Amino acid sequence: MNSAASAPADGPLARFALRSAAWAERWFPDAYVFAALGVVIVAVAALGFGATPTATASAFGDGYWSLIPFTMQMAFVVIGGYVVATAPAVARVIDALARVPRSGRGAICYVGLISMLTSLLSWGFSLVFGGLLVRALARREDLDMDYRAAGAAAYLGLGAVWAMGLSSSAAQLQANPASMPPALLAITGVIPFSETILLWQSVVLTAALIAVSLLVCFVTAPRGASVRRARDFDGAEHFAIEEKNAATLPPRKRPGEWLEYSPLITLLLAAMSLGWLVVEFSAKPLVSAIANLNTYNFAFLTAGLLLHWRPRSFLNAVARAVPSTTGVLIQFPLYGGIASLLTAAKGSDGQTLAHHLSSVFVRVADTDTFTLVMGVYSAVLGFFVPSGGGKWIIEAPYVMQAANDLKVHLGWAVQVYNAAEALPNLINPFWMLPLLGVLGLKARDIVGFTFIQLLVHIPLVLGLLWLLGLTLSYHPPVMP
Hints:
mainly alpha
């Protein structure tokens, strides 16, 4: 019997995923083109509602640089995660984890599980760690693992459950009155974690999402001749091979390089950095401190500095990480422009496109259907404004007022937003960029697999949000 005849056959969902992947590889544009088309579509919609060309252009230009702090934060998520994970000690941990799976399918599910569990603690760590785990698994010649499907599994943390965990921007904001805009605080009051991410209903929803996502990973994983390894992708193989030469410092050649090879600078910088981190974590609750992206990135850079020990080793790791941030740096400004077009370009009636979108959904809702209507709306808007915290600031005032008016549990309304807002992440290149940079892939390479996840998640998420919401009763806002 020849090997082709003995190779395991792909199941129906796996074949559908492969067809979706093949379609995406042929027709799905580069993430930059996708973002640019988003600008055009939203601008045309704003003009259609009566916004003047001047107002539309001004809104786009004013918003273009509005995400620069967030852009740099995301770039440093990639750099910090890469620097830490490629340090010799941490790389050995990842390599040890990569020795656990015994099959390609098992490896893909393994990556998905680790990605989703770590995302409940920190979405940034999940994104980078998951990508580096895939790279370590890809180095195993004995593992028949599809690189595309593994990359899609590494993305599940951010594409499925991250907002149900401790790094949920909306839940964090609602639990901290000092961080909330006064107008929003007056509508919602303070909503503690016990009323959002720690509800038993939230735990059930999260567990169901993890279980179903892993099942989809298993049944859609290509096998046999359908498997594509890292070496089959231009630009990906050099990410997957072991970088022994890059990790080894060449001999010092000049006297001026002494400080670059000495740990003295590392110790001095690390002492100051650790001092600041001690003060930061002493002054704030652990969850609040680590949820701050600046603190998170600072901690990772400090750890990377110490783990590499010598400045030259640290700088070499940063240099290898920077190319992975290209997509982030050039595309995030376009999303800032989209957000501004939605919220700043006023039509002939003096209202913005975001207001018109919200009015359509809020107007058709009642107490029984509010969960479904809000879920659909949050998912649709999330595709155009892919920023959990920023979008919540935009969306919360009117949807939470509607929740009050319709007597819907306010904490569950936050969870409806969290679960539904994550849905478009599964096919939106915005959040894929750091992971794609780590893997050396393009969005088109993994979106065929994440699209299958989206098709399964939509009815699952909306159905459970509605069903579990029936078990909760309305409580008036609690003011601080």
